[in-house]
Amino acid sequence: MNRILMLSVILGAAGCVALPPLPPPPPGLVAIEHVTVLPGPAGGVVEDATVVIEGATILALTAGGMDVPAGARRVDGTGRYLIPGLIEAHAHVSKARASSLGLFVANGVTTVRDMGGDHRELLEWRRRIREGAWVGPRLVLAGPYLESARNIERMRADPPEARIEPFERTRIGIGSPDAARRVVDSLAALDVDFLKIRTVEDRETYRAIAAGADRHGVPLVGHVLGLPLELVLEARQAGIEHFIYPTLDSLSEAARRDLWRRLAEQDVYVTPTLVTFREATFRSVEHLRRAVEDTTGSVEPRRRYVSRYLVRDWREQLLELDEDRQRILRALYPSTIRNFREMHEAGVTLLPGSDVAVLNVFPGSSLHEELELFVTELGLTPAEVLERATVRAARFLGIADSVGTVAPGMAADLVVLDGDPREDIRNTRRIAGVALRGRWLDARELDALLEDILAAPDLHTLDWGR
Prior knowledge:
single chain, alpha/beta, Urease, subunit C, domain 1, TIM Barrel, 2 domains, eight-stranded mixed β-sheet, four-stranded parallel β-sheet, 17 helices
């Protein structure tokens, strides 16, 4: 299998075992020559550029070529395109397990916003990545999901043998405003980058969570299912995940557009996770079942990279998906797409995120599917989509001073493509090489990374859960 095809196949992932560390970079510099840079400084495009990397940082960017320092590793970028590492705006890495970290990198994803998981474990994974002991993307962490107390009690009502996720380590139930204040105070004292709401007990508890997050200066994001947008705006929630339900069909177009305008004015970012909606809605249940149970990858080649734990979790998700539920989702789909299109037209920033660990959604390559859906379903141009997966996502995560553009002084997390993503967003999949913290991974090294992932023990051993 050639490497480009392999990259298109490696959506799945898994394993809580450490992958081999990146070898130490050779002495000297890395120079990517005669490449088209986008987005470059101030969001512009730099033709025939030479980008010099020193350590984990971009040292220089020069148009028209330059004298490359002697001894530098030279990468030929002729006819190629250099972009910042892509940012995955919605993933659950605990469920995908640790070997998925390498899959993100192999697919050009160098930053991941984790939207809820085993926080202690994720902090350890982040430490190992930062120290260079593991291959993996930069992790921006929410900590555990915030849930309604009722939802946690529902989970506890399941017989122990029927429970898959260790929810005591991944979710916190909040049943009152007083509990909200205590929980938010406790989480703010931990190393969390933001807080994520999944379900809420009632409106007053939601207000208390939002007030606590604001008091500690921690951004609040999450679901708004059943929450009126007026309340979300009042609480100054920074981000909305997935779709809005009810879908506001009872409102006139003018009233909806007024809401979207207010979201834009308040700088609320929205992550639609369209690929998740598509898989749950338009894939046949039988196809999904066959894909999950196919260990050889003949139905879905990416399935070979899915961890033992995630397979178990997907089986549980399959039990909740049937044709009746799919009919309901199909009925919601047109209104949902309309809402996102109107949001974009009103100036709301939509961020690409795939919801990794949901059934048939895979680390790394499912983000490329999401990018394509932003074009085909939402009407964004390829250039707009690329900008949202880099510049704007970095801005939202508060890391735009080091990530999201190609410029001197920025982090050397970069991807070289064999096609222009402005012409066809699917060209983000044509990965010729990845720079991760300044270490250049060429085709041979990416192939070796993929082989290591296939051999990861957590693809074969249940290393998490109950």
